[in-house]
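Input.
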Amino acid sequence: MSEMLIECLDLIKIYSGAIKGLNVPALRGVDLNIKKGDLISIIGPSGSGKSTLIRLLGGLDRPSSGEIRFDGKLLNAYTETQLADYRQKVGFLYQIPEKNLLPHITILQNVMLPMMMFSTFQKEEKYRAFELLAKVGLSGKEQRKPDQLSGGEVQRAGLAVALANDPIILLADEPTGELDTENTFKIISYLKSLNDEFRVTIVVVTHDVRFAKQTENIYRLKNGRIISQEEF
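Output.
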């Protein structure tokens, strides 16, 4: 296995507009290399193409042209079945809690749910779920439902869900967009700790400069293009 995990070459994504014949370019030729174990941020204003890029990296959508390679294999040539298998290697963390957690079950059950789809060993799943919730500071709150937690706690529970299947890469889309400064830095701290401990590759798209400056590399996206890179 090579050190490079994801390679994007001249990535273009065009959506059909509401008016027939009017196409809207979201990405206009993105080149991006992500190494295994990287913790990077992609920063840019609303409408710059950040969420589109996350969807493409996560196998939730296909590019209009260009290449995405995952561990050397051409991702945009995958069949739908292969893409579904690929998505099991990806953890997703969204800004909106409802995308991360089911509201009617406990956070312990939420973390166990992705694992139960691929395993019949419930005791092992429960042990791992307790372990993940402890790693994001939620020990003792496993039996609470999302509406019994604070906003920061809900997002940390979502992080545990994203890590449930031991993903190779974690994609976070504006994970601190609705959090105050204190909880923003808690999420940053947990992501850095998990990156150090598990060496899971983490890509965060954000407009939050506070977050971005805590990552190893910042890529600035504007009008569907990466316009600069900064290393820390």
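The chain has a mean pLDDT of 90.
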